[in-house]
Amino acid sequence: MMRAKQPTQVGMIASPVAIPSVDSWDIGAVQGEGLVRSYPISCGGMDLVLSIPGCLAPFDASALNGAPRKTLTLRVPKEWDDPLGDMEGALIGMVCAKSELFFQDSLLKEQVMDRYKPITKKMGKYPRNLRTKLNADQTWNAVRYWNAERTRIDAPTHHAGMATNAVVRLRAIWVSADAWGLVCDASDLQVLEAPVAECPFWA
Fold it and tell me: Residue 129 burial by CB count (10 A; 0-12/13-18/19+): exposed, middle or buried?
């Protein structure tokens, strides 16, 4: 019997929290020549991958017009709050310093900040949310699901209320004419607690 393939360990950053400093990231050559360009990210010759245990999906994954690439918001543990916020702050500083590379123009920090589409959101005392992308089709970077016994499982029918250990990849910096941000893909989700399905009958 073939054993299920386990989540990749390449480039994984184990807990406690340790996100490589932005100035250690390697920015690859530009890809794409259309309205949106991307610059691949790596670190030390490996994919930039974060392992974030104890996440909660407060909402279901969503997509525009039924597209296979969906957005999933993950509520991350408190210890990830400041490191993720610091990472985005350093990223803005780096892109500002290299604005001619990314935008073919010298921009002020305020202009770079105005164009930035953050992947995290912090509101008051509540935990920080991380916006990830799920590739639901069968491409090479499709998200994989695992149960608590580390066995490969099918994708859940919905994600709202799901507790999970998440492996996410910061894949690239994307840039358009008036916006930019990080490509953050969920590569593996270990489902710890399945969401409760709503009863289809009237009370």
Answer: buried
Domain that holds residue 82: 22-193
User: For the whole prediction, is pTM greater than 0.90?
Assistant: no
Structure tokens that stand for 20 in this block: 């490589």
Task: Report the CATH number at residue 187.
Answer: 2.40.50
pLDDT in tens, 59-99: 999 988 777 789 999 999 999 999 999 999 999 999 999 99
Structural domain count of the chain: 1
Q: Residue 6 falls within a domain, yes or no?
A: no
